[in-house]
Amino acid sequence: MQLQKATRKKSKLRLNISGPAGSGKTYSALKMAKGLIGDWSKIAVIDTENGSASLYEHLGGFQTVDLQAPFTPERYIEAIDMCIAGGIECIIIDSSSHEWSGSGGCVEINEHLAQTKFKGNTWSAWSQTTPRHDAFVNKVLQCPVHVITCTRSKMETVMTDDKKVKKLGMKDIQREGWEYELTVSLNLDRDTHTAQASKDRTELFEGLDPFVITEKTGELIKQWCEQGVDVEAEKAKEQAEQQKKFAAALKAAEKSLNACKDFASLASTWTALPDDIKKATLDLKDKLKASFLKPETTAA
Predict the structure, then answer these.
(1) pLDDT of res. 180
(2) Is residue 6 within 8 Å of 43, Cβ to Cβ?
(3) pLDDT in tens, 93-149
């Protein structure tokens, strides 16, 4: 724990595109990813929509992972890990809605747990379902590559006191608050295929008129992501400095041990060394110790 000055760091994109069926979520995500990465081969779609992403193969040679039911959080995590291991730099999850409400998703998992372990109490069952969903969310948030999620949305309605149906607006088919976990959330209109930001930590889209997502959108986001300190480069630099200091300390310790003239001076020098240096010079210490304790030979 340390109190320090706030420093902007380079970051990976965490963006959600939501909209009803036919609003252009997959196409928009692919165009954005191309602008963000610049190389189709480094883009992968985790496709839960019956291979619909492959309908856009004419755009470029992106990769796909065909994810079938059951849509458990663990299978999503497995697919994400597969993409990372394959050198993918931008993962599009199309769609995240299945993890929540699809066959084998969290809602269905919770209902099954309620009936089999909690005597029908769905509220209590969430004590086991929520950690599994949270693991999926954390995987997205902590992923070392860019992540774009596509989420289905539907019109939310309520019945008023006078028995009339009132429309409240579009609602994402995911757990409540899903969009607020991410850096940017864009809502697509079904008729115009234009986007508006419902949340935007980048301040790139707040207050803008509805716009069409293009490769330029991805390029703009890339510029934002690359602002600030390169955390990985800073870590590599720090590790190099630590290795340099360790090498110098090890060399000095070996020199001091080799200069010992007897077992007593060896023991004293060894005791004063830091634990990591002791571990690195253990063989040398044992060799010197053996030479000091070697019994003198006498004539027969």
Answers:
(1) 84
(2) no
(3) 999 999 999 999 999 999 999 999 999 999 999 999 999 999 999 999 999 999 999
Q: What is the pTM of this model?
A: 0.76
pLDDT at 299 over 50: no
